[in-house]
């Protein structure tokens, strides 16, 4: 059956009666053919439209329109806004798309997602302008995980740090570190406010966004094709992503849940910053794979292999970076003392480069210079500013699975069939057409 | 008719009440100030339990000390005793018989202070600062529960140096509350766990946080049968969530409300959002009080979902609050809570700004001549403390240059009072018009 173009645009007026196929609305059972057809359909559209705003037509949808935080009608005297306990966010699951994340979103879900993203943008704006405490984690809606890039520091902890630094007469370093944290926060907020595709992809991976909407999917593809020239096994990620194997949806497995929960068991402030920062630069493990581009001596496989253990704990990549900063020998003052008990087995130098942008190179104390300040030539990525943060993870969660002995997730390049290789390298999927 | 203080009811302006050249807002509610306040920020307050005749107030401060006052019915406060830790004191609590006070400190220990003998011994040890401490009295056991930033919750029999039990938390413990048989712990990264304490403490449920931002304070409330049934959770984002443990209708019964924001009704204009630093429930009426970084305290009725009263704005954030055992007295601590950390930087050591900031308020710390007759500051820091205080004030000024959005922030941060204020509350009235 022909695919209904209007449904793809979110405005089919026949709905169930429509004679054409409405992919995705009929459930995940559509199988492998579906996502790729979807992709091709969306490809056409996606490349033309820059934004995700599919339609302004209000579909008659049955879910409640209340924003997840229904308390916005708060008035001083009479009543509190009532809190809608997130009923609307569960809709995403109920659409029969549960297994197939690559299917196109139905219009309701697109709206949900749009609302979610708008909510995030609004919250960021409020956060910035309102003078509220900035060292706090944030989650857009109840039941969603915390968005990465924000660390939780309570005022008491900060004050204690101040006291400690006061006794050691090292006030300036305290001020510097706080300033760095503030900058880091501000960058992250700006990133989330601008909400370009790379952050959306990252949010998908964090399971904040429930489904990979087609635009984020597109971007990921675009992204991967860029990597096809990169020498090492990096581009192995693409087949995992693109070929819709049943595990593909889970390929973003290990790194990120760990990241979110890789909280700091900080004894002291300095360590806390670093581990918090580890979550911020969650993309940085990804960059580990790119280290060959920086001419490090280690071979590709070793670079990747170092990334794997780093992946398992959210922190060690910072450890390694702090221990051997690629750019600058002088370590930030946060270097050694805090890293007690962390595996220091990450031996090779190249590991440090991802955090090089984070640690700002030569400046020892102001380690958290603005990310992206260093050129990363190997990556012709569309958005430079999010480099240090979130854009890379998509491609690099797969490398960790390289280490797994039985890797169902992807096949090394030489094992791809000719046909698959051709698909992988071409601009458009033609499988199943 | 005003129950807060002697002269004015609320609603009159709080500025320039002293008639001095500087507008001093440190006690706009004209409440009674406790004498001999600590020299640094006050982190926690606790009133004595009903088993003890009279009212005794314990306050732990960032000056490493714990102080005890007797609060008499006339309103007079008499400093009674003091104990020291080697680090700032983060939490205090009383034992159920009122003979002992437990204090938790950043020096990673908790101490038991026997008031009759004025001796304090260490009863707990953690790997990181101890943030919360509570006394649990169960029919078959009694112990002290300490929550720490080392992500553990430990239960101590005061006679032994090994904990009776250690429970792992997902993240650093930020706040906790205990009303037997229920305990609630809120951790970093928006973690929220409820424990049940019968027989022995065990985790009852992990709850998805109803709030979007960092948890700051939590307080358990009871139902009409005096059983703990839910809790109120405050965050840094000026919002409190009321959450019932087993509500008949969760979607309707649990809710959040915004508080401690400037222009509260007008959500279109950018508003300032302040952290909720403390929540306390009135022991008799079940109404709740919240105190925030904006320097106000508010009383709310969670069943009618209304706000009962908001105080005038103090010039400093309010960092802690507490009701006494019968709800007649509400104590709140006004001191800087580190909330204005937006732009530390070069402003710190600018001497011109420094002198403007200190001005008369700074001196007001040690000499009370500029203040009105009703209040007695009674603060006379020793020279060593004073220097440290001055240093702090210098730093404070630097920090307090706000992001640039709101000049109100600058105004309020100018002074450096660490005052402890008491006010008398005869009754909370419900439903709308407050007679408070």
Automatic annotation (TrEMBL), chain A:
Zinc-finger ranges (C3H1-type): 1-25
InterPro entries registered for this protein in UniProt: Nucleoporin_NUP42, Znf_CCCH
Localization per Swiss-Prot or TrEMBL: Nucleus membrane; Nucleus, Nuclear pore complex
Single GO molecular function: zinc ion binding
Polar residues bias: start-end ranges: 39-69, 81-92
C3H1-type domain boundaries: 1-25
One GO CC annotation: nuclear membrane
Keywords: Metal-binding, mRNA transport, Nuclear pore complex, Nucleus, Protein transport, Translocation, Transport, Zinc, Zinc-finger
Stretches for region Disordered: 24-95
Presence of the UniProt keyword Coiled coil in the record: no
Topology of the protein relative to the lipid bilayer: Peripheral membrane protein
Record function comment: Required for the export of mRNAs containing poly(A) tails from the nucleus into the cytoplasm.
Protein name as annotated: Nucleoporin NUP42
Organism: Aotus nancymaae
UniProtKB/TrEMBL annotation, chain B:
UniProt KW keywords: Cell cycle, Cell division, Cytoplasm, Mitosis, Nucleus, Repeat, Transport, WD repeat
SMART domains noted in UniProt: WD40
InterPro entries assigned to the protein according to its UniProt record, in alphabetical order: WD40/YVTN_repeat-like_dom_sf, WD40_PAC1, WD40_repeat_CS, WD40_repeat_dom_sf, WD40_rpt
Gene Ontology, cellular component aspect: fibrillar center; mitotic spindle pole; nuclear pore; nucleoplasm
Cross-referenced Pfam families: WD40
Gene Ontology biological process: cell division; regulation of mitotic spindle organization
Ranges where the record places region Disordered: 15-34
Gene3D superfamilies documented for this protein: YVTN repeat-like/Quinoprotein amine dehydrogenase
Principal location listed in the UniProt entry: cytoplasm
GO molecular function: RNA binding
Subunit structure: Interacts with NUMA1 (via N-terminal end of the coiled-coil domain); this interaction promotes spindle formation in mitosis. Interacts with NUP98. Interacts with MYCBP2. Interacts with USP11.
Family statement drawn from the similarity comment of this UniProt entry: Belongs to the WD repeat rae1 family.
Name of the featured protein: Rae1 protein homolog
Organism the protein comes from: Aotus nancymaae (Ma's night monkey)
Source taxonomy: Eukaryota, Metazoa, Chordata, Craniata, Vertebrata
